[in-house]
Inverse folding.
């Protein structure tokens, strides 16, 4: 659901199996890798998935009954069964099988090179799907450590394990580390030359990591290359390209090219609905991004409606405490607040932050962002004491690697300082927020424009002139129509300079 193409089955990620055709009919189950062919409706795709699951379950039951099966072959087939269940979105079925394969690999004599690493990799994949990112990272690192003495360094399996490590690192907001893993995976896959889907998968991960690091040009280059690889392999309208189009939309959105971004999001959403049906988590990803884009364009009511649909899908499919579900709840709080539904906005922000903290930890980026925004809404409600409780989160976010996060953190700290009578300190924090926003290259990033207005307003107030300057009026015009909350901020701020 975080934008990666799941091609682990078709790309040859399993270990090489002994050539015993009479015992390997289970490998025919690799065919569900592409869930539905081009143009097939969601209902037919569901029938195909259900048929594949039934075949897989029957094959797994037969495997369990064959007590005299060679242990190496049993281990290899267990890995295949676990892998196929993950491709068919059944991590709860895959996990015990992968754990059994891990035990068998560790007890084997002699060892099958790479079998333990493969089992650890599948367990990492399972935890990543569930949103248990710290555990997924630990298992992916264990897979790499197990593979190091047994598999040549440029073996393609190292690329899969590094991609598996990059994914939870990305989710844990460690984009710089994730970029290293994805880049190394890309290097190995380029050398291999025969796993184009996996190459596209790793390129997508690299593109998202670069986007989070603020490298828009690098993000676009990696993502467009991934798209070209998939188009050359499957054609323009294949499901695999839907994820890449979604990611390209994110990059264009950051650059302020909203019409183009909307087109990529729309096409991604349409393809996913046709192939998965309306209730799939993949559909929620596209809805989530469309909601954020509409918010950036000032369509707050539409953004809230679309985001609510994404939340309901994620709640039902992933559970209330999944990080993606809590992320959507936090966004609902933001959309509420910008529409001046401050009480419900604060409630959703706090609920999302608490859920995120339980799964990802209090110091995680997702939790911290939610706390900082909750502090801002608390100030809007005039609750200084409550807002001050979020200062530690803002300090933590101000030291983070993402300029966007530093803008919102510095603005909250500036507002807190001004509200507590520390004018010079407040101005310094607002200046920091404006400086961080100026390097983003994102003209529609609302918090940066809000920081510019707040700074210009406080500079006028501190000068004693009590009349709007050209800089203040320009900042007011840049932010006034961004949301009802911004309009109220501008009108109240300008009125405060001339009470009469």
């Amino acid at each position: 659901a975080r934008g990666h193409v799941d091609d682990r089955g078709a790309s040859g990620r399993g270990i090489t199996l002994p050539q015993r055709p009479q015992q390997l009919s289970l490998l025919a189950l690799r065919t569900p890798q592409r869930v539905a062919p081009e143009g097939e409706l969601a209902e037919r795709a569901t029938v195909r998935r259900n048929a594949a699951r039934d075949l897989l379950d029957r094959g797994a039951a037969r495997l369990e009954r064959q007590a005299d099966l060679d242990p190496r072959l049993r281990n290899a087939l267990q890995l295949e069964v676990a892998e196929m269940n993950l491709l068919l979105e059944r991590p709860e079925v895959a996990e015990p099988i992968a754990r059994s394969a891990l035990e068998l690999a560790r007890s084997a004599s002699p060892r099958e090179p790479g079998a333990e690493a493969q089992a650890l990799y599948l367990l990492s994949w399972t935890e990543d799907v569930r949103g248990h990112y710290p555990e997924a990272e630990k298992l992916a690192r264990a897979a790499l450590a197990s593979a190091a003495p047994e598999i040549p360094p440029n073996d393609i399996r190292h690329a899969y394990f590094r991609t598996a490590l990059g994914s939870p690192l990305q989710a844990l907001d460690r984009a710089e580390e994730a970029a290293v893993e994805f880049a190394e995976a890309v290097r190995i896959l380029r050398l291999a030359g025969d796993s184009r889907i996996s190459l596209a998968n790793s390129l997508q991960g690299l593109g998202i990591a670069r986007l989070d690091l603020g490298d828009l040009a690098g993000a676009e280059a990696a993502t467009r290359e991934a798209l070209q690889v998939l188009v050359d392999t499957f054609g323009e309208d294949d499901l695999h390209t839907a994820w890449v189009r979604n990611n390209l939309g994110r990059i264009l959105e950051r650059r302020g090219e909203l019409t183009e971004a909307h087109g990529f999001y729309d096409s991604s959403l349409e393809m996913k609905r046709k192939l998965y049906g309306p209730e799939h988590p993949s559909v929620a990803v596209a809805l989530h991004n469309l909601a954020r884009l509409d918010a950036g364009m000032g369509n707050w009511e539409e953004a809230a409606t679309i985001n609510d649909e994404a939340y309901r899908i994620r709640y039902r499919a992933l559970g209330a405490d999944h990080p993606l579900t809590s992320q959507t709840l936090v966004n609902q709080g933001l959309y509420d607040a910008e529409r001046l539904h401050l009480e419900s906005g604060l409630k959703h922000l706090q609920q999302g932050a608490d859920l995120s903290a339980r799964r990802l930890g209090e110091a995680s980026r997702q939790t911290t962002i939610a706390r900082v925004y909750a502090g801002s809404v608390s100030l809007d409600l005039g609750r200084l004491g409550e807002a001050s409780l979020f200062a530690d989160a803002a300090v933590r976010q101000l030291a983070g690697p993402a300029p966007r996060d530093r803008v919102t953190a510095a603005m909250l700290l500036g507002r807190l300082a001004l509200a507590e009578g520390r004018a010079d300190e407040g101005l310094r924090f607002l200046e920091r927020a404006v400086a961080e926003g100026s390097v983003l290259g994102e003209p529609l990033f609302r918090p940066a424009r809000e920081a510019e207005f707040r700074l210009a307003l406080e500079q006028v107030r501190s000068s004693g002139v009590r009349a709007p300057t050209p800089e203040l009026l320009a900042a007011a015009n840049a932010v006034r129509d961004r949301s009802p909350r911004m309009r109220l901020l501008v009108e109240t701020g300008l009125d405060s300079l001339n009470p009469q």
